[in-house]
Amino acid sequence: MKKIYLLSAAAVMSVSLTGIAKAADLPSRPVYKAAPIAVPLYNWSGFYLGANGGYGWSNQCVDITAINGIGGIFAEGCKSAGGGAIGGQVGYRWQAGQLVFGLEGQGDWTNIRNTRVSLQNPANTFRSTLDGLGLFTGQIGYAMDNVLLYAKGGAAVGSQNFGLYDTATGTGLDFAKRTRWGGVVGVGFEYGFSPNWSAGLEYDYLWRVSDSSTFATPSLAPVNSITTNTKTDVNLLTVRVNYKFGGY
Question: The whole model's pTM is what?
């Protein structure tokens, strides 16, 4: 009886060990990990509207080129002055990989004033005010996700008022208003802080060809007219905020 019991126990143990050995030979069960969630890169493409504000510096040079219609060159020199700027912009951008291309129109109200006492006749003072700017530019930029660095260039137009004043009394002697075209180049940095909103900083340099204005001055008889040639360059630094239509 003991023999039979021992044989049965040995058989059971043998079957158990065989099962354990086979289980040990089975390949381990693969561990599955959830696929990472793809985060889309920032998309700079689309139509946008924005606002800007900042400060501009104007370097203005004046030469008297004729008195009473008689030609001559009398240099009045150059002078720099500054003033505020505020306005808006509208544009469209296309993104191809990390390259970004765009077109933009910008308009700003400015208050950039320049005053100088005439070197030829200190009794007279020239004053000018640049009271409006328009920029029409193309852009090319390089995007690093939601950071955009870009350069721009194109045409610029300015609305400028000129006046000739009596230095002692401040009385206006004559005035002229001109709308003048020139060129602009600039660089900027923009940061997208949401799929639709971005903020940045931009620097623009505006220049134009010289232009001539003739002032009638009957109160300065025998000087009845003064013709001046002026050239104005502008350095403009603005903070910008844009809203882009469409998200990622």
Answer: 0.78
